[in-house]
Specification:
alpha+beta, Glutamine Phosphoribosylpyrophosphate, subunit 1, domain 1, 7-stranded antiparallel β-sheet, 3 helices, 39% strand, globular, IMP_cyclohydrolase, IMP cyclohydrolase, EC 3.5.4.10, IMP cyclohydrolase activity, hydrolase
Length: 197
């Protein structure tokens, strides 16, 4: 089954996978802790605004040593991270940018999906052409751009960021391109990338 791009978030873990039929020549690059989806060197040129974006950021709320992770499938990841750095609670940091940017105005009205994770909490959100959904979750939860576009519990067990990235990359959904994940515990954030190589 093809469900497009998807995230899995739960307390202490956030993961994102790019799945694509239209733009397979992509990878995730590490830009000093900012993980970015970008075309591979051999990718054909495109002016599609939804091909490149930051997909995973580590941020800190003001006056805190805590680190939070933001994951998502597009340009909304940046303003969500900015809201957290301004002191917004996770729910509001998700809801405001998702509502403002709305679903992607492409041929499929592709939903925007995102999650915010701390070491002991997780929030997941999506904006579709018919709804804005943002909720706190206490177990691993998946939301995707197609077919699985409402958050649902997901059987997910990863001991490390590398395990989590590999698990979403290898998940039984079609057209895996690349994946990234982060785990958070008392020692901070660890993250990993799986470009399927």
């Amino acid at each position: 089954m093809y469900i497009g791009r998807f995230i899995v978030v739960g307390p202490g873990v956030g993961a994102y996978r790019v799945s694509s039929r239209s733009f397979p020549n992509r990878r995730i690059a590490d830009r000093d802790g900012l993980l970015t989806v970008e075309p591979t060197p051999d990718a054909p040129e495109t002016d599609n605004p939804y091909v490149s974006y930051n997909c995973l950021q580590v941020v800190s709320p003001p006056a805190s040593d805590d680190e939070w992770v933001v994951v998502g499938n597009g340009s909304h990841v940046d303003p969500i991270a900015e809201k957290i750095e301004l002191g917004y609670p996770a729910r509001d940091a998700l809801a405001e940018p998702l509502l403002a940017l709305d679903y992607e105005k492409d041929d499929y009205n592709t939903p925007r999906i995102a999650g915010v994770v701390t070491d002991d909490t997780a929030h997941i959100g999506t904006v579709r052409d018919d709804a804005l959904l943002v909720k706190a979750v206490d177990e691993p939860t998946l939301v995707a751009t197609y077919e699985e576009d409402s958050p649902r519990a997901y059987d997910f067990d990863a001991a490390s960021a590398a395990d989590a990235a590999g698990a979403v990359y290898d998940a039984d959904y079609e057209h895996a391109i690349c994946a990234a994940a982060a785990t958070i515990d008392g020692d901070g954030v660890s993250y990993a990338i799986d470009n399927g190589e």
